[in-house]
């Protein structure tokens, strides 16, 4: 079944007040609802009320207090006929139904994790709790009473404010919560169980006092400080940058170890994957600390961009996700505390976009940031909707300026607070607040694919005139053979010895446009798409000399990094080793005392294999791996002295701080360590083993272990054993242990990683129903370890097919994610391509596939 954006109809009925009474029992939870129903925008007298419900046991229905028998039940719906006065006036529906949380392995709706109850309702999980108008344009006020046995569930949480608690007979108790803000069902949440919290009271901009809580299992309380600090920083940042204040008296975050995604912005009761809450230096890496900061911010920012103003329908998902990712990226950039820190954050974000979103945009699942069609909405929580969506929001800010963007945001809230709206509404707020025509900008919402911009230069020395011609195109994507030109903001600057040219913003709107620059005294070097101002591919043939100039001196840090990436990429794809000039350029970067260590680390990190694949028309994954690895080894060897010196200079003595400065130093130190092992594993492995043993933080311990494992050092084995024993009781650290082994590239003389992964799959600590564990073993291998995964005999693909088929009956959402690992199969050379196709067909032949996996496989095979 396919859903289409243009088939949207407003609801026939809508809800006002909703009261829920939920008696929690893992085997049989009884859900009673009392709903005030009103005519909606598509109402016609006599229309039936069609509620959706999934995996529910229906018990009873009453209307206006009377038993009602005029209804039909299907596996997905409850249709109610013969409504009082043809449905024209408000009426009350009361439903009783039952669900079974302990059997719910999909982790959507109400489920049990480590004996506690949690919910996940976005996008369509509420229908697994009770029959409802489970769509985001129906916004209701919720009052929720939770009941449970007090011994098993001392804590009972839901959205909003706690208005009552009671002791009940037989050891039961109850808590009643009221959320003052109308909300769609996808923002509903409940949590119940044995949890404890840390709390803080803060004063927000209006002078109001607010209670902040972070709820976790008792043994994790000591790992919540960083999340709390991140939450407080987010609250202050949103007040300062966007004038947006926390609107509730109480704001809660809860951590759960079984969770499909990163986290969820339920109103006043955010629920998080433990991975994005729990951290202390001994168990979490710098990357973990940074991710926690950004996910906490992301979910908090949704309170305005998502909750106060929500989406009309799920095709508009990027309205809240693209915007909220942009906001969290800006927040994290500001938290870096320096201009160079902001640039580092920008480079990291773009690297992710190119590694994950560019392939998606070129593959069978390509879709615009506002899709036109889907079979299963869970498959559209994608890097396109999120990360490309964020790039599109960033382009408004680039076009309108920071102040103009803020004006647009202010107008957006003024117009739409409390409403469920569309991406067009956002665009119109930006346009109207700034008096700017953004009609053509809409193409970013409707067209898939990464635009290509061809750059042609002409310098006339006699006239001292420079001409720049930009030509845009965009390859066809599924359902979109032809594309209209995009509105592309390109920041550019001409680099000259005289240093007399300013940065400018070019707006490329035609298929092809030429700009002329006068009084350019010498042939300049062009720096374009500075700070990655538009999510495009540049088709720009530059001489190695020009790239080296940019690499050593472009004043735009992003483009400086970019020049280095381009140099390396061209050489790797041509199977060349770095020449003396490049080595010298790398050396200068490493020795430059004015450069941020984090920037050096990014500069000396080579383009990912997945990004290199996208530059080819027929990918031989083993050749690319070998060429990239040889290139890396050469940098490692040629600069061995520098790496050794940096390893010493980048030490961070004193107490551990996860800030941008120290984490940048650790990153460069640990890159140096890895490079030393790349150059001469036998010589440097003892130093890595020593770092492993004496480290007082996870960043250094893990990096040392990774260097040993990745380079096949003999010390790897005993350190892995030590690591497991040391952290056996800490699930998130054990995920790292699994993940590291599954991501090991091929190493001469060792068993293949596939053999190791098959053993890990049988390890007693492996669980197919825990998404984090599945990701750390199966995804890490199939999606993040290309050289081990892509074997000419197809053994990796067989493992993939077995895993998708095993996972699908347990958790279709996680299975569908994994299914996407073969998206780009058509890009590969033989025999890889045929073997991938065979594996896809084997999965496709399964008669009982979930709609989730069916959609992904169907699109991959082109049905
Ligand atoms: N809205 C959440 C976020 O971006 C993601 C939840 C998606 N969950 C799902 N099951 N599709 O933070
Ligand atoms: Zn989000």
UniProtKB/TrEMBL annotation:
GO molecular function, one term: aminopeptidase activity
Superkingdom of source: Bacteria
Cofactor(s), by name: Zn(2+)
Keyword Ubl conjugation (UniProt): no
Enzyme Commission (EC) number: 3.4.11.2
Keywords of the record: Aminopeptidase, Hydrolase, Metal-binding, Metalloprotease, Protease, Zinc
Domain Peptidase M1 alanyl aminopeptidase Ig-like fold: 449-540
Family: Belongs to the peptidase M1 family.
Protein name: Aminopeptidase N
Organism: Polynucleobacter yangtzensis
Name of the gene: pepN
């Amino acid at each position: 079944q396919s859903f289409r954006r243009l088939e949207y109809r407003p609801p026939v009925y809508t809800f006002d007040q909703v009261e829920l009474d939920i008696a929690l029992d893992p085997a049989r939870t009884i859900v009673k609802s009392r709903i005030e129903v009103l005519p909606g925008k598509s109402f016609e007298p006599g229309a039936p009320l069609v509620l959706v419900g999934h995996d529910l046991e229906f018990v009873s229905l009453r209307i206006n207090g009377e038993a009602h028998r005029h209804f039909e039940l299907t596996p997905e719906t409850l249709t109610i006929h013969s409504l009082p006065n043809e449905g024209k006036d408000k009426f009350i529906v009361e439903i009783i139904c039952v669900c079974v949380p302990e059997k719910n392995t999909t982790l959507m709706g109400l489920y049990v994790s480590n004996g506690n109850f949690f919910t996940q309702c976005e996008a369509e999980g509420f229908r697994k709790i009770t029959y409802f108008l489970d769509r985001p344009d129906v916004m209701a006020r919720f009052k929720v009473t939770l009941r449970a046995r007090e011994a098993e569930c001392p804590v009972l949480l839901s959205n909003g404010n706690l208005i009552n608690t009671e002791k009940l007979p037989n050891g039961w108790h109850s808590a009643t919560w009221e959320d003052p803000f109308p909300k769609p069902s996808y923002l509903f949440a409940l949590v119940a169980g044995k949890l404890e919290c840390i709390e803080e009271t803060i004063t927000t901009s209006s002078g109001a006092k607010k209670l902040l809580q972070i709820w976790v299992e008792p043994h994790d309380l000591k790992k919540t400080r960083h999340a709390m600090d991140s939450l407080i920083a987010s609250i202050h940042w949103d007040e300062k940058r966007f004038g947006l204040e926390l609107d509730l008296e109480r704001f809660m975050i809860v951590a759960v170890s079984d969770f499909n995604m990163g986290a969820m912005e339920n109103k006043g009761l955010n629920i998080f994957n433990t991975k994005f809450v729990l951290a202390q230096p001994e168990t979490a890496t710098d990357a973990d600390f940074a991710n926690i900061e950004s996910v906490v911010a992301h979910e908090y920012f949704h309170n305005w961009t998502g909750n106060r103003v929500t989406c009309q329908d799920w095709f508009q998902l990027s309205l809240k996700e693209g915007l909220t990712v942009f906001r969290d990226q800006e927040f994290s950039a500001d938290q870096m505390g320096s201009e160079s820190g902001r640039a580092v954050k920008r480079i990291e974000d773009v690297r992710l976009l190119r590694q994950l979103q560019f392939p998606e945009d070129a593959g069978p699942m390509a879709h615009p940031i506002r899709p036109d069609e889907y079979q299963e909405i869970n498959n559209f929580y994608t890097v396109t909707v999120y990360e490309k969506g964020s790039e599109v929001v960033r382009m408004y800010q680039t076009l309108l300026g920071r102040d103009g963007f803020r004006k647009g945001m202010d107008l957006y809230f003024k117009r739409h607070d409390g409403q469920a709206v569309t991406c067009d509404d956002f665009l119109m707020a930006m346009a109207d607040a700034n008096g700017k025509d953004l009609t053509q900008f809409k193409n970013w919402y409707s067209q898939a694919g990464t635009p290509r911009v061809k750059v042609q230069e002409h310098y006339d020395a006699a006239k001292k005139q420079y001409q720049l011609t930009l030509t845009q195109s965009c390859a066809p994507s599924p359902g979109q053979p032809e594309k209209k030109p995009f509105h592309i903001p390109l920041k550019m600057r001409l680099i000259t010895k005289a240093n007399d040219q300013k940065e400018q913003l070019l707006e490329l709107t035609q298929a092809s446009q030429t700009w002329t620059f006068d009084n350019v005294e010498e042939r300049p070097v062009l720096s374009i798409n500075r700070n990655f101002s538009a999510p495009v591919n540049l088709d720009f043939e530059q001489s190695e000399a020009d790239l080296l100039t940019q690499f050593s001196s472009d004043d735009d840090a992003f483009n400086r990094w970019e020049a280095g990436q381009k140099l390396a990429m061209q050489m790797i794809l041509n199977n060349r080793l770095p020449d003396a000039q490049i080595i010298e350029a790398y050396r200068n970067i490493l020795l430059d005392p004015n450069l941020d260590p984090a920037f050096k680390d990014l500069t000396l990190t080579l383009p990912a294999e997945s990004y290199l694949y996208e530059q080819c028309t027929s990918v031989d994954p083993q050749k690319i791996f070998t060429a990239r690895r040889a290139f890396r080894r050469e940098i490692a060897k040629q600069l061995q002295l520098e790496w050794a010196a940096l390893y010493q200079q980048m030490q961070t003595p004193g107490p551990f701080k996860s800030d941008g400065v120290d984490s940048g130093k650790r990153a460069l130190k640990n890159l140096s360590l890895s490079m030393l092992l790349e150059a001469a594993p036998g010589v440097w492995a003892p130093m890595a083993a020593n770092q492993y043993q004496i480290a007082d933080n996870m960043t250094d311990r893990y990096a040392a272990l990774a260097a040993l494992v990745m380079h096949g050092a003999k010390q790897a084995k005993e350190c892995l054993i030590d690591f497991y024993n040391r952290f056996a009781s800490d699930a998130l650290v054990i995920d790292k242990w699994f993940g590291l082994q599954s991501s090991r590239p091929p190493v001469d003389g060792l068993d293949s990683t596939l053999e190791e992964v098959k053993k890990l799959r049988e390890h007693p600590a492996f669980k197919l129903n825990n998404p984090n564990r599945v990701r750390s073993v199966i995804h890490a291998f199939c999606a993040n370890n290309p050289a081990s995964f892509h074997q000419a005999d197809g053994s990796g693909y067989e493992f993939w097919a077995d895993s998708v088929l095993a996972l699908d009956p347990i958790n279709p959402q996680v299975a569908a994610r994994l299914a996407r690992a073969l998206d780009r199969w058509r890009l590969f050379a033989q025999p890889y391509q045929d073997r991938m196709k065979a594996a896809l067909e084997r999965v496709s032949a399964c008669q009982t596939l979930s709609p989730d996996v069916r959609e992904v496989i169907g699109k991959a095979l082109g049905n």
